[in-house]
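User: tokens in, sequence out, please.
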């Protein structure tokens, strides 16, 4: 009897290889999708931080747009324009460069409500504190970010080597995915 030359793969080997490749593909797609979601979320977070920074620059030129911290409960949909600036205004005035929606679908809209707390009159070196509430409204994502600043005192040395106390405003960030005021 003549021995057959066995070249190629059996059906079981082919099915096993396809199964292994399918499992690897599913795992890779899952990791890629998770990475895309994470990067989009980070892009939205960075947009809110940029809007807060833009609002900081904005109030240097338009200080009348702030509301005292104790009066924040007086904010309504009707009067919010008095104490806030929209993303569109920040872009139009050159304070904010980009509001592209990372989820797709145009630009994100939103506003930054600017709260202020006057400095302590007993402390001549006290800094005025601001709080920025960013209402970010994108196609599939609505969030409310609160950026407030707390005064921290540090001991440093001046140019002569003497110890001095220096106050700095340090940001405190909180995020809430609910209660964003979107038009």
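Assistant: Sequence out:
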């Amino acid at each position: 009897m003549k021995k057959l030359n066995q070249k190629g793969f059996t059906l079981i080997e082919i099915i096993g290889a396809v199964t292994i490749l399918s499992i690897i593909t599913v795992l890779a797609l899952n990791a890629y999708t998770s990475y895309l979601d994470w990067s989009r979320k980070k892009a939205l977070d960075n947009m809110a931080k940029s809007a807060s920074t833009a609002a900081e620059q904005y109030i240097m030129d338009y200080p009348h747009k702030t509301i005292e911290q104790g009066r924040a409960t007086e904010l309504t949909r009707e009067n919010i324009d008095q104490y806030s600036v929209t993303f569109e205004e920040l872009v139009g005035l050159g304070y904010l460069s980009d509001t592209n929606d990372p989820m797709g679908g145009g630009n994100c809209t939103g506003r930054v409500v600017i709260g202020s707390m006057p400095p302590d009159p007993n402390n001549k070196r006290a800094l005025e504190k601001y709080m920025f509430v960013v209402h970010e409204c994108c196609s599939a994502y609505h969030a409310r970010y609160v950026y407030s600043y707390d005064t921290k005192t540090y001991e440093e040395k001046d140019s002569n080597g003497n110890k001095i106390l220096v106050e700095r405003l340090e940001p405190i960030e909180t995020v809430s995915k609910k209660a964003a005021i979107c038009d």
